[in-house]
Amino acid sequence: MRIFALIILTLSLGGCSFFKDRYGQKPEIDLANIYFQNTTPLSTTMVFVLNVKNPNKIDLNVEELTYEVQLDQKEFAKARADKQMKIPAGQSAQVELPLPVNFLKAIDGITKVLAGQDVGYEIIGEAKISGFKLPFNEKGQFNMNGLTKKE
After folding, report:
1. Are 44 and 37 in contact (CB under 8 A)?
2. Assuming Cys at both sites, which of 26, 74, 78, 79 could form a disulfide with 68, CB separation 3.0 to 4.6 Å?
3. How far apart are CA 151 and CA 149, in angstroms?
4. Residue 113: CB partners within 8 Å, gap ≥ 6?
5. Which of 73, 126, 76, 74 is nearest to 99 (CA)?
């Protein structure tokens, strides 16, 4: 009886590993670009363009995104997007995350950006995919020289 239970347990664990490797891999995220839109003297919308690679064998249907951007480890802005998007199985897609920024509230981070200095960023968030929540986190550095304006 013990041998039978051990065989069942081994098959079960192997099956879980099969499904996780095939359908449960975390997407790879890279920052491709950042641009500004709807800029006024007191606010702007920063759009973070991310390359998202789906290593899974099924499409990822993103229903909702919540995210926060930190500059030099300080909260810069938060947003939520209900825009539905699809990232095909085994492929990459560009995802744009708009982030409304009030200059008065974000003066510390903006000062370094406007001075053309390197600024550390971190995008922390959660994607709701087919009813499941998947956290994501992207870190890096950028400076004003690498940003573009797009209307």
Report:
1. yes
2. 78
3. 7
4. 71, 119, 143, 144
5. 76
The domain spans of the chain are 25-149
Q: Report the half-sphere exposure of 70 (CA within 13 A, side-chain side).
A: 11
**Domain 25-149: what homologous superfamily?**
Immunoglobulins (2.60.40.10)
Angle, vertex CA 135, rays to CA 130 and CA 139, nearest 5:
140
Structure tokens at 120: 């550390």
The reported pTM is: 0.64
In this structure, the number of other CB atoms found within 10 A of the CB of residue 48 comes to 21
CA distances, 26 to each of 87, 101, 141 (Å): 12, 29, 22
In DSSP terms, 127 is beta-bridged to 65, 134
- Tell me how far apart the alpha carbons of residues 49 and 32 are, in angstroms, rounded to a whole number: 5
Q: Which residues have C-beta within 8 Å of that of residue 137, sequence separation ≥ 6?
A: 122, 123, 124, 125
Is residue 123 within 8 Å of residue 137, measured between CB atoms? yes
| pLDDT at residue number 15 | 44
Residue-wise pLDDT tens digits, 1-37: 433 333 333 344 444 454 455 556 778 888 888 888 9
